[in-house]
Amino acid sequence: MSAREKTGLQALLTPEESVLLLIDHQPFQFANLNSHEPSMIVNNVTGLAKTAKVFDVPTILTTVLEDRGGYLIRGVQEVFPEQKPIDRTFINTWEDERVVDAVTATGRKKLIIAGLWTEICVAMPALQAAGEGFEVFVVTDASGGVSAEAHDMAVRRMVQAGIVPITWLAVMGEWQRDWAREETVPGLTEIQAQHGGATGVAFAWETQLLAGRTGSGA
């Protein structure tokens, strides 16, 4: 990614240019997740998946050795109930031609990745895809490693290669871009209420206040 591509309006994500790749959010991977609180990753990747669906962003689901590592977590699978994750043997997702073909078929060049673990199953495909002409973004708070150091070193390594670290709410904000785009607002409001932490609590409070004001005839 050139310096020009990293700055300016064109550096921001749009739904029309994006494709999302979710890698190995499975029980075995969560068992040794120590860089983050596991429940936070579950919350964030589920919120990210729901956001992608609201914006009709193509989303590819993958698992590794599903029979041994377990099925994709329910929160993500339920967002795309019709989609069977691509189950791999390759550690590096980008070496599985089915995954590359699925991403390439979308015709989109801004590849957003989240997965477990950051230092292996995220870094490997991110580095390879970046070398093959994709603009790669890694959702760091929907990914995690076996230790805080492992996650941090992986993010640093990817940044050195021109890959962009981003958080899931930042992805949401860049896809939405303008609250006047009303068709996606109801869906995002529900996602924030369910997965946005204090933002969801604050929204519920605001709704309560507005309902009370309407009831009083104000």
TrEMBL record:
It comes from the Bacteria. One of its GO terms (molecular function) is hydrolase activity. Keywords: Hydrolase. It holds the Pfam family Isochorismatase. Residues 18-168 form the Isochorismatase-like domain. SUPFAM superfamilies: Isochorismatase-like hydrolases. The keyword Hydrolase applies. This is Hydrolase.
